[in-house]
Amino acid sequence: MTDNKTPETEAELSGATPRRRPKADVLEVGGRKLSPSTLMMGHAFDPMLSEGSLKPPIFLTSTFVFENAAAGKRHFEGVTGKRPGGADGLVYSRFNGPNQEILEDRLGIWDEAEDALVFSSGMSAIATLMLALVKPGDVIVHSAPLYAATETLIGRILGRFGVTFLDFPAGATEAEIEAVVERAKAQGNVSLIYLESPANPTNALVDIEAVSRVRDRLLGDTNPPIAIDNTFLGPLWQQPLRHGADLVVYSLTKYAGGHSDLVAGGVTGRKAWIDPIRMMRNTIGTISDPNTAWMLLRSLETLELRMSRAGENAEKVCAFFRDHPKVESVGYLGFLQEGTRQADIYKRHCSGAGSTFSLYLKGGERESFAFLDALKIAKLAVSLGGTETLASCPAAMTHLSVPDQRKQELGITDNLVRISIGVENADDLIADFDQALKAV
Ligand SMILES: *Cc1c(COP(=O)(O)O)cnc(C)c1O
């Protein structure tokens, strides 16, 4: 955003002021490009536009006053999509707001994205993206499994509007992905390739680079976007735009929010694909509220600290679990076996193993429940990516409604405990898990 002294000619002619937000920012110092964790403290906000307030105020207003009528017209050209890139100024809080715009600018930094949008939840981000990009008769090709609500949205809700889908397993080879895309082409117009990596709760990684090559080879004429849900490793440990994705989706409720105290979503990526999604968001009103956006600005300041600590903790905890006699195996990205396809994808795509993993206990539901009920520090709750450690049993909770056959295929067994490690002291966590295993 810019308060450049030389507004573009069109803006001058229309009598409107240029964007009110500063591009104030120092993006580099002495030729050194600043890193995201530095930029999270000040990027895209000029205190002098808000009485010198160091932190952005929360702008609780439903509408914004135009400088003059021509400015109002110009802003609406942005809102309605007559002019790409969104509104040049603030209009009405269903379209944009200062807190949300600052947040979007900062979120985009992590992915080195051209543009970003924030939403009222991860699911409203995904739903808005899909409503913007698919139409009746289209086919969505997706990796599997997906977050359960995303599968419901594609299969049951978009299905009612004549959209069909075909999927491939998350770990599929390039040839397997190609075969599915070939079949999808025969079925209809492929307008979206939708990925989730790592998959929940299997932690299987998708080869984004392979998907991108297949798209270019088989769908080069229509060039549908590749969108990926990066909630589990993003934005710190995986940057999908670098590997051929066009759009990255987040449940900001998880690691980005990081304190289990808000619900929000985000999409970052190429401007050409963000524009239609923004148009849809403007129409249906799935933008996040100013208060939540403000909380996320605070969260992003500590994102790298929190995620790094959680990642280190997870490494120590998983090392403890790995050798424990009551543990069958640990589904942790840090333990991928050298030479396997998954390890190869990991090396090319990820810079860290995350802090969410699957613990397979020896036994079944009785053992999982005994373990969960004995925990004293870790809380028994679904969700992930918060400062506190959470544990749950997917087969009995998040994935309860998944048919048994499908659960079997996905490895969602009764002895699987899903754990999201927080930023507590690692040795305290290990002591807790140790005593809980004793209770099994
Ligand atoms: C939680 C989650 C979502 C949904 O996000 P909400 O903020 O709960 O709407 C989508 N994808 C993944 C991978 C998630 O973990």
Please report the number of helical segments: 15
Poorly predicted runs are 1-19
CATH architecture label of the largest domain: 3-Layer(aba) Sandwich
What would you call the structural class? alpha/beta
Strand fraction band? 5-15%
Which CATH class of the largest domain? Alpha Beta
Strand order of the largest sheet: 3-9-8-7-6-4-5
Provide a quick synopsis of the model.
The protein has 440 residues and is α/β, with parallel strands linked by helices. It has helices at residues 9-14, 36-39, 69-79, 98-111, 122-133, 148-157, 174-187, 208-218, 271-284, 290-301, 303-322, 341-349, 365-374, 404-410, 426-438, and strands spanning 28-29, 32-33, 115-119, 138-144, 164-169, 189-196, 226-229, 247-251, 265-269, 327-331, 356-361, 379-380, 390-392, 416-420.
